[in-house]
């Protein structure tokens, strides 16, 4: 179904005083001494779009900085923009179809497929030539991802407020806002339509997209609920 209206991510200013010279110097000193092993494994930057699991009208541009743990598992830090001022808004775990199929059915609902994102052209590696991109995206199309966003930048929050939310990804034509797509295409000099044609040969999961993935076709939202008379709050999944 074609989504009506517009909802483009914003880039709110984080409250606080500018970084002091003493802080910057301290960071340079610690950077020269310490190692950053997990960050050094990041090997690629992907741009994609996410929407809230309970509200497809809230769509967010998401920049993934990813590294492989092994051939079947990679993990990504997600920022709202790729420059030095980007906000860390979430993370994504990506697994092969083989690992996904080992998950309990209820867990599968929290993961989304990547086949449509890849084949439609809307998932891309900024600045990387098409033929090189497609070598990796041919693998990504067969995977599943689990995304949690902590910072609701689309509503202009200055800080990461509220409960972390499960996000979902596009699965068919007509879901992504046209203006959001065009804005990204112009900024990165890419054509989703042209890349769709170039990726026509790419195949998705060997067993097809699992029916329990992508929320099982239903919305899902993370909420707080009272679990006993002692007024103890805990995170719980509520499927809408």
TrEMBL record:
Query: Can you tell me which family this protein belongs to?
Result: Belongs to the OBAP family.
- Which top-level group of life is the source organism from? Eukaryota
Question: What protein am I looking at?
Answer: Oil body-associated protein 1A
**Could you tell me which Pfam families the record lists for this protein?**
DUF1264 (PF06884)
Residue spans crossing the bilayer: none
Q: Which InterPro entries match?
A: OBAP-like
Question: Which ranges form a coiled coil?
Answer: none
């Amino acid at each position: 179904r074609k989504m009506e209206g517009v909802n483009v991510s914003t880039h709110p200013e984080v409250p606080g005083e500018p970084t002091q010279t003493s802080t910057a110097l301290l960071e340079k000193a610690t950077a020269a001494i310490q190692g950053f092993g997990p960050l050094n494994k990041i090997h690629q930057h992907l741009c994609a779009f996410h929407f809230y699991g309970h509200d497809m009208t809230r769509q967010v541009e998401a920049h993934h900085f990813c590294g492989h743990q092994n051939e079947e598992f990679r993990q990504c830090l997600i920022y709202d923009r790729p420059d030095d001022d980007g906000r860390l808004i979430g993370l994504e775990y990506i697994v092969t179809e083989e690992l996904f199929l080992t998950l309990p059915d209820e867990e599968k609902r929290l993961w989304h497929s990547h086949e449509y994102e890849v084949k439609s052209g809307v998932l891309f590696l900024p600045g990387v030539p098409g033929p090189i991109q497609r070598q990796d995206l041919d693998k990504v199309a067969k995977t599943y991802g689990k995304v949690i966003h902590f910072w609701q930048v689309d509503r202009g929050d200055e800080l990461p407020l509220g409960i972390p939310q499960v996000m979902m990804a596009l699965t068919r034509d007509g879901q992504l806002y046209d203006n959001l797509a065009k804005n990204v295409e112009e900024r990165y000099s890419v054509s989703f339509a042209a890349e769709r044609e170039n990726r026509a040969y790419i195949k998705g999961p060997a067993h097809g997209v699992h029916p329990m993935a992508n929320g099982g076709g239903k919305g899902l939202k993370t909420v707080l609920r009272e679990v006993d008379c002692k007024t103890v709050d805990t995170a719980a999944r509520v499927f809408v």
